[in-house]
Amino acid sequence: MSIEELWDTYITSRDERARQQLILHYLPLVKHLAGRLAVKLPSFIQREDLEGYGVIGLMEALDKFDHTMGNSFDAYAYHRIRGAILDQVRRQNWLPRTAWQKLQHLKQTRERLERELGGAVPDEILAREMGISVDELNHLASSAGKMYLMSLDEEVPGSDGSVVRKLDLVEDTGSPDPLSIVEEKENRKLLARAIEKLGQRDQLILSLYYTEGLTLKEIGQVLEVSESRVCQLHGQVMRKLRKTLQEMLNS
């Protein structure tokens, strides 16, 4: 189906499958914008995070675009995606604006000196070039750590040598995992009954992730949605399952 046909289908019926295909079609625009903005931002802000923010902006652009105005969607989406990325960066940045500007200056100065010197730049030279002391440089560098955006979907080595997500290593004491609830009640059939109460797509996501062992990216390919969308759907499914289990245990 051509892009024109996808748009016709989506505009006339708001078909979800057409929407997913349009998202995939415009993903290169998200990656392009994320790449351009990543160059201007401090290096500790991950490009993958920017792309995730951009995907959210793309989905909002599709939902709010008014084709009757005669505007180009590419131009409209460009501003929506860029705005969504910058909004999320600002929202998660709790440093003062002056500190943010200094960090950008530090990044630009270091990169310029690395090009000129052909390698790593000693702190003394970097501080002198910026017109500050080495102590001030170290303090500025430590501020960068306070802005580091950590993705809980990032994979790290587990204690047994396997690869796990950081999210899987975080214990939520206020909201136990559904499997933990079942084990405490010694009734695994309860989990199966709770899953049966979910919709078909929710059951499919659980099966692909926990039974088949597919990654979020692979599940996205099966469902024909973005990886970030699968992450959102997985979180929604787990909240539904947890609520259903708790209601069944309390009944």
From TrEMBL:
Coiled-coil ranges per UniProt: none
CDD domains according to UniProt: Sigma70_r4
Keyword Cell cycle: no
Keyword DNA-binding: yes
GO molecular function: DNA binding; DNA-directed RNA polymerase activity; sigma factor activity
Keywords in alphabetical order: DNA-binding, Sigma factor, Transcription, Transcription regulation
Boundaries of every RNA polymerase sigma-70 domain copy: 215-241
InterPro entries for the chain: RNA_pol_sigma-70_dom, RNA_pol_sigma70, RNA_pol_sigma70_r2, RNA_pol_sigma70_r4, RNA_pol_sigma_FliA_WhiG, RNA_pol_sigma_r2, RNA_pol_sigma_r3/r4-like
GO biological process, one term: DNA-templated transcription initiation
UniProt protein name: RNA polymerase, sigma 28 subunit, FliA/WhiG
